Amino acid sequence: MHHSSAAVSGELTKPPPSTAPLQPLLDLITNVLSLLLLSSLTVRSFIGKWQILRSKLFSLHSSLSSLSESPHWSENPLLHTLLPSLLSNLQRLHSLSHQCSSASFSGGKLLMQSDLDIASSSLSTHISDLDLLLRSGVLHQNAIVLSLPASTSDKDDIAFFIRDLFTRLQIGGADFKKKSLESLLQLLTDSEKSARIVAKEGNVGYLVTLLDLHHHPLIREHALAAVSLLTSSSVDSRKTVYEEGGLGPLLRLLETGSPPLKTRAAVAIEAITADPETAWAISAYGGVTVLIEACRSGSIEVQEHTAGAISNIAAVDDIRTMLAEEGAVPVLLPFLISGSTSLQEKSANFISLLSSSGEYFRDLIVRERGLQILIHLIQNSSNPDTIEHALLALTQLSAIDSIARVLSSSTGFIIQLGEFVKHGNVILQQISSSLLSKLTISDGNKRAISDCLPSLLKLMESTKPAGLQEAATEAAKSLLTVRSNRKELIRDEKSVIRLVQMLDPRNETMVAKELPVIIVAAILSGGNNAARTKLMSLGADRHLQSLEEMEVSGAKKTLQRLAAGNRLKSIFTRAWKDH
């Protein structure tokens, strides 16, 4: 049954409906219905409307027959509200049938048409409510109010409880709705698996309708809390909320709701937009502007979740452009300095996505002081994910020549990259290595991070993620252009042993043998005899000879450089004969 806001507001303070026996009431309804079916045959005015009504009356008769045959129908509390309302409507229809019994109707025709339409609509609602009760199976359950299933309950028990709960939610008045929503919230909070069952067995579409502004605030608040939990609990339930039209009402609540409603709406919107196939729909509802404004002026919680939603929808090309045009960049960039940990991460992800999307977006970020903000972020954040997004953004910005020069000359930034190579997770190590290899770094800055060379050589042995070995090799090669760095590395016994082991054809960890060859060549580029001696003593010559025979790129030239000089040539010859 449907209620106006005022009616619903009143119902929340009403006493519970009468618990008088229902059988006499059903008998009375059946009698009035029989009389009405007979009188509908004798009407002489508005015959077309009465034909439609008569069809509905027959459907009602069938539903009431099924109701009376259900073993526990009289114990269901919903009928204490539904049946009196139905009786009132039938009595009103019976009165109207008498007024229409004359062919020359003398009353107001427009008023009669309106009365018949209202009665017909109410009749449809009653039939729908009865059918819902019958289909749910709750009339075969002898418990007046089903108890909340335990988290260990099986799927069938939870499904039955959900069907009963949604029946009460849809048919019952405001008090039933409130109690049903409270039970739903408890179920979703206590049992993770319940969200999928609610999506399948419950009427999520009806739950979404309760988000409309004309519903009582308490009911709307509970409904929104349930929708928010559904979107956050599972992919299936999140998809169901979206497919049942939940995104539009959620955006309206984010825009116009009270602070608590805005927070829950933001949580749900972030969850829904996590699916790429639904993220695009934000623009169809005019949601881009709503999200940016909520992110600009909302509470910290609202900002966190709307920033997440903005980051999600930024994956869609067309929406990315809209976000830029609507001013998302100047709204989110400051969060990289002043925002919470979560807000920083989501904002950094958004900036990273934008920076990878073309020159227009990169220029926009730079104009808003994005370079300085990103450098500040990586030097002050302790969140690896946030740093990852910031480094990826800086990598993209370095495609601009002027930005690349600034980054290359920033000693603090270069030292920070070296720290990530030594102590960061593998993703940060890869991104930092890649940046070090691409930037034109001064010799002074290269000397400042010489202590990360052992870490770079160690990364060369890592087969995952793809591209890490190459990035580490290129970064190490760049640092080895400085003489003091070459000397420092060759004094590191462990690193030199690791390098020679990578040359060994039998070592399958290093599949691309040309990479350690590049590093040996870089070490030998300055003609350091101590380096030659150390490498020869560890067997680098033998491995290079094998790699030359395998036609590994650079092996022949590097072997020749290693064997340069008469004394080393003789050593090489003896060693080769011994081999």
From TrEMBL:
Keywords: Repeat. Residues 30-138 form the DUF7032 domain. It comes from the Eukaryota. This is DUF7032 domain-containing protein. SUPFAM superfamilies: ARM repeat.
